[in-house]
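Input structure tokens:
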């Protein structure tokens, strides 16, 4: 599957993006085959999600590619960007808009060599030094297109990863203005205001939407908070 979006269009959409959903390969334990996943994604996009990432470490490559193809099509039809976690090769095969890597995954330069210049690359950051390195590499043309900053709070999706708190968000807001950054880590409607106050205008959520009884309504509530901050 080849996405019709150009790199310029993807980056323009990224600049406008505020709400980013990370989801697993199924919509819950009652959905082991992932059949409800595209419904969750479409509802989330209807509520205001701009970017959807599929993150799944345990599926075989063929099954992961099948889920990625499904979500890439759903995102293209609904107007959101689709990102695959950690697998540049499968991101290409699925026609994803981008790939996201962590500090312990494939280096950004190696991922770029695989996916080319048209695809987005995101990078997780957990410290001031990592933010600085990402900013410098981006300015030189060899870095990521966006960064995730966190985890703000401890989260079960990243066991053993200590929380960084909102201070790192303030640092990113002050020192990485040219590089889009998304606050991440245990964010929901009750604490999103804390990272907004620290300078974030973009946020990544997981359970706050994927675990909600009404994903569209949950997404809309979060998006309204981000939009209100942008309008100030």
């Amino acid at each position: 599957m080849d996405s019709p979006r150009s790199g310029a269009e993807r980056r323009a959409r990224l600049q406008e993006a505020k709400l980013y959903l990370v989801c697993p390969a199924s919509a819950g334990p009652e959905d082991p085959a992932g059949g409800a996943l595209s419904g969750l994604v479409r509802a989330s996009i209807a509520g205001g999600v701009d970017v959807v990432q599929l993150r799944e470490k345990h599926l075989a490559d063929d099954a992961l590619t099948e889920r990625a193809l499904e979500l890439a099509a759903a995102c293209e039809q609904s107007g959101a960007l689709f990102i695959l976690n950690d697998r540049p090769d499968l991101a290409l095969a699925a026609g994803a808009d981008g790939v996201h890597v962590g500090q312990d995954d494939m280096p950004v330069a190696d991922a770029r060599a695989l996916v080319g210049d048209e695809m987005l690359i995101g990078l997780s950051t957990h410290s001031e030094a990592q933010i600085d390195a990402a900013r410098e590499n981006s300015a030189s043309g060899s870095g990521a297109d966006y960064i995730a900053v966190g985890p703000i709070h401890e989260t079960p999706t990243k066991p053993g990863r200590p929380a960084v708190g909102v201070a790192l968000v303030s640092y990113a807001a002050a020192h990485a203005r040219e590089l889009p950054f998304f606050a991440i880590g245990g964010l929901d409607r009750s604490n999103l205001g804390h990272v907004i106050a620290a300078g974030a205008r973009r946020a990544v959520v997981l359970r706050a939407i994927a675990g909600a009884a009404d994903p569209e309504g949950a997404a809309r509530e979060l998006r309204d908070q981000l939009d209100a901050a942008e309008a100030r």
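Residues 15 and 50 are 10 Å apart (CA to CA). The chain has a mean pLDDT of 93.
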